[in-house]
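Collaborator request, handled under Task 6.
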Amino acid sequence: MDKRMKDLVDFIRDKYGLKKYFLHTYQIRSNTTIFNETVYTLDMEWFPDHEKDWQDEDFNPEGTAYIEMDIHSKEVFTVIFTGGRSYANKKFSFNDRDEIIKWIEKETGLKYQQQFHFWKEEEGKIHFKECINGVAVSPSGSIEVKFDDAGKLTQLFVCGQFPDESLVIQEKYKLSINLIEGMAKEQLKLAEFPSMEKKKLVPAYAMEEIYIKNDLSGTLNFEFIVDAKSRLPIDEVMEWENSSQKSFQRKELSLVENMAPEQAFSKEPHPDLKPITESESKMCLESIKLLLSGEFPEDSGNWILKSLHREKGYIHAVLKVKEQEERVFHRKLLLFIDPQTYEVLNYMDNKSLLEIYKDFQAADLVKVTKEESYDKLKNLIELSPYYVYDFEQEKYVLCGKLDSQYAVIASNGDVVNLSEL
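Structure tokens returned to the collaborator:
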């Protein structure tokens, strides 16, 4: 084992009192942040000493400790003791939640009420959410901690960005529903919701979530799969004249990245951060058309390539059907492209998911107008302050999150909770 790695392993052994454990497996992984930074983590599985003869490759023994830490900062993101059983010789003595909060501040370097605040407590687990001076954040982060009756740590999850003040544009919140009523009406959309209980499609007006900037200079829409910087918008209709005669053979993908110590300690940038060039985009488009013309030969002009982005070592292409009904779920394709050869290796199609609804009874006729529906929902619309990361400014800006948990049935005007649809 690399000496630098051994030092980190010894650090974790001492930090969490793993004297009755041995290191079973470890690997180095790299991830990217929304700030286009690369984070290298050391992921470890520690087995209890009395399980040295464990043979089951599918399951870990009770008491196994899984720990994930940042190689450079030594910040720990995850601690899980399998089955909630810990053989660690380190105990904590907390009399109340305030002492746990102080421990979290010490462990993470974060400040309570400035970067995280209490959310809820259940089954002995305490949940906190990321915040900026008490205001909610998007993309959101969280912290979860759990201790057993003996005071031993059994779970710790730290997920999120938790920005410092240098990344935040501080403002006084001034938005109100009356101030943005025109935008609110625009966000009320008519769509068909599949009702599993009634086995039919239900037309309803519902609010499409959006973030409105506090200075009314614009809006922010978040897609949480990839950050806006790494995604290359395309919005091009896929058309071809001749169908491909070559049979497509799916290739197995490897989504697990094992990095070498030198890559980690030299802080080598993650390959997913490399921009997709114009020439790469063109080669991807040709491969995508070849795939579509063979798998969907009658669909020329029916698919739109929405975007390209890098993820887990592949170029991902997102496609949607050009014209489709206004329903909650839309037909999509996700293609995985080799970043060296630009060949489509595999793809995912949500057609099978949508076929669940193909025999549903058709939606009733729309009898209620959008204006009438807005009047019914006006007092049920929520506008909450949020700090949202703006990829253009590379700062967190104050916004109002426009949303509603209710909808109006377009066939009869009934107001229902979205959970009922």
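The cover message to the collaborator said: "The longest helix spans residues 278-295. The helical segments are 3-15, 97-108, 181-187, 261-265, 278-295, 351-354, 370-377. Please let us know whether this matches your experimental observations."
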